[in-house]
Amino acid sequence: MSLPRPAVDPELRDLLTTMPLTTTLTPDLLAQLRQYPSTPPETFYGRRTVQRRELSIPTPDGAQLLLSIFSPTTADAAAPCIYWMHGGGMVIGDRLSQIDIPLEWLEEFGAVVVSVDYRLAPEANGSTLADDCYLGLQWISDHADELGIDPARIIVAGTSAGGGLAAGITLMARDQHGPAIAAQVLICPMLDHRGITVSSRQYAGEPGIWTREKNEFAWQSVLAGRTDPSYYLSPALADDLSGLPATYIDAGTAEVFRDEDVDYATRIWSAGGQAALHIWPGGFHGFDAVFPQAHLSTEARRTRTAWLARTLDLLPT
Fold first, then answer.
1. Homologous superfamily, domain 10-314
2. Of the candidates 220, 216, 223, 270, the residue with the CA atom closest to the CA atom of residue 242
3. Is the N end or the C end of the chain the one with fewer CB atoms within 10 Å?
């Protein structure tokens, strides 16, 4: 018997009827989804004139890691930096996926946005995905002068799988005394491979944007048979959440990641840290990325940006 679920916001529910939704994700469907290109980022530049450049950096195993760098042409000499990790369950997407979210912060704060094209599962698996993201973070810190950013104002941010990877590399930077991270913004983050929460069971057996079945497929692709991943890949496994930077976490009441996200914020508080937690009534997974003009989406984005503005104001310049 299926568990009762919080209702989806009426406006979002009506919008969802326009989308072809599935319950499961298969290799064939994954191949189809990967064929859809991301929206060109120029669509989201807003009022600012933006300079874009692409570069690649070598990974320790000989691959090339692609980065897209977006800079306002009128940027301050030491601008804040948004280091962005895209969503897609670690199996779909590229560095331009959901790029409208950090580009809003480029427009609002004059921030430099760097988006990383981490390798995807199942072609890559295990720690490779988090290692790719951490390598990009190290490169940003090492090239702060070249990028025109303030190394003390690097914000790590991501949505869904990217939110989980953002949490993972923030833990990695803490543990390895790596680049300073001023704050982390975790948008409906994918934090726990175990699927043990109530919300992970509520959103099973019916079509949706992201279901328990899709989540299991994604984690199986990433783990490739492993049962004991590092907490850099599955951050909910971390025993110690102390020493983390200011953290923003949000999710919807009507989504699979709700409870693991609430638990992560609770454990940051228990460790003496600061986390702002927003659980949006009626929001499904990724609602503000899928339908950014919906009323709940605009409120969620506005609240997130206001938190980031306050956080940046508190940082030394």
1. Alpha/Beta hydrolase fold, catalytic domain (3.40.50.1820)
2. 270
3. N
Q: pLDDT tens digits for 111-154?
A: 999 999 999 999 999 999 999 999 999 999 999 999 999 999 99
DSSP string, 14-70: HHHTTS--BS---HHHHHHHTTSPPPPGGGG-TTS-EEEEEEEEE-TTS-EEEEEEE
> Nearest 5 degrees, angle CA 244-CA 248-CA 253?
130
Tokens of 223: 């783990």
Ordered strands of the 275-280 beta sheet: 50-58, 64-72, 112-116, 79-85, 149-159, 183-187, 246-252, 275-280
Pair of tokens at residue 165: 């990877």
For 201-248, the pLDDT digits (tens) are: 999 999 999 999 999 999 999 999 998 999 999 999 999 999 999 999
